[in-house]
């Protein structure tokens, strides 16, 4: 069985319900799904299997059949049915066998379900925002109509000396006077700007002439919904940042209710080029998602560049320490901001898998790897047997040395630094736990070099 770990987004968009995902989700899914190729007679899955996988036929023909003979069907990649999963049931109700050289896509069900849920929640919030905006606009129009009607009420009887006929005569006299004045001015003598300004435009034409910024301000004032303008000129509204995030699988352990709360509690802020969002050495008080623009990470020198969809600021929030780098905007942009209290409640604890010393010993015996995130000097003084040393400040640079198919148990002295390391690794897709209480709770297990 040969594997090809790449698939382009265009092929993913031909599949259902995958085609409904946002571009950001499709990009992430393309890195998590993989293609397999098998030859004639090879079984893709068997009746009764509980594999938690979704399979799509990309090339070739397969036979689906049940053991009791009640179902027997050939599915070809040339048919429209191939855009849907093969036997989308758990456990499998039929067996699937290749009738020749076959190419198919395999996706973990939990991955696909999480992506669908995330995007649907984002769309739901955007629709709610639009509905609220329409309701606010309608209310404002009704209020303006009522106010206009109030101003147009007939005057009291004591003001009847100003008759309707007198008012009309006055208006006519004023209009004639204005016309006479305009006729005295030659069009050729009038400045071009003044002449062009006298062009009468319909409300529709006038609205088209308004800039995107003006339209956004108008919508915001009328509706009460927070709109900000992205670099592309597109309005970014509540919920849109969710679909812009590049790596939502980092939050796959969050309960669905937490995702909903996360959306509601994050604050949208506009930032300018040169603004310092996070300053090295300060204590962290917020978690950020960059939804538009670019930012740079510096620690004396530039370490990395952040694009829209990147998140940052979590390390000091988890560890309780100081910011270890500065984040500065390279362009104007938009950020979603989450307070430390909300971060701890919604993200930190749900994503950290804390285990007791007893469970950690058992899991280590079964093959889990110890990961010491303290400084090298601390590690060499004493450490757990067979532990690898990867200091917290090196985690982002060295995590590529780890294997995503393996399980790791992070530890430090108290559990604070290991919590920060585990959070970062979990965001990157590693299977990681935290030794609750730190290595101090198991001194008898320590060894020295």
Report Rg.
Answer: 32 Å
Assembly category:
single chain
User: What is the CATH third-level topology name of the domain at 2-109?
Assistant: Jelly Rolls
Strand content: 15-25%
- Count of helical regions: 15
Roughly what percent helix? 25-40%
Q: End-to-end distance, in Å? A: 44 Å
Q: What is the second-level CATH architecture of the domain at 2-109?
A: Sandwich
Give start-end ranges of low-pLDDT stretches. 157-164, 178-236
Write the layout of secondary structure elements.
Blueprint: E1 2-4, H1 9-12, H2 23-32, E2 34-38, E3 43-45, E4 53-59, E5 61-65, E6 72-76, E7 95-98, E8 102-108, H3 109-151, H4 164-183, H5 192-197, H6 203-209, H7 212-223, E9 228-229, E10 235-236, H8 240-244, H9 256-265, E11 267-271, E12 276-278, E13 286-292, E14 295-299, E15 301-306, E16 311-312, H10 314-319, E17 326-329, E18 333-339, H11 340-351, E19 354-355, H12 357-365, E20 369-372, H13 376-381, E21 383-384, E22 388-389, H14 395-398, E23 407-411, H15 416-427, E24 431-435, E25 446-447
Helix pairs in contact: 3-7, 3-9, 9-11
Can you describe what's shown?
The protein is globular. It is α+β, with helices and mostly antiparallel strands. It is built from 15 helices and 25 strands. Helix 3 crosses helix 7, helix 3 packs parallel to helix 9 and helix 9 packs antiparallel against helix 11. A hairpin with a 5-residue loop joins strand 9 and strand 10. It starts with a strand and ends with a strand. The chain has a five-stranded parallel β-sheet. A four-stranded antiparallel β-sheet has the order 1-2-8-4. Among the domains are: 108 residues, Jelly Rolls (Sandwich); 82 residues, Jelly Rolls (Sandwich), CATH 2.60.120.10; 96 residues, 3-Layer(aba) Sandwich (Oxidized Rhodanese, domain 1). About 15% of the residues have low confidence.
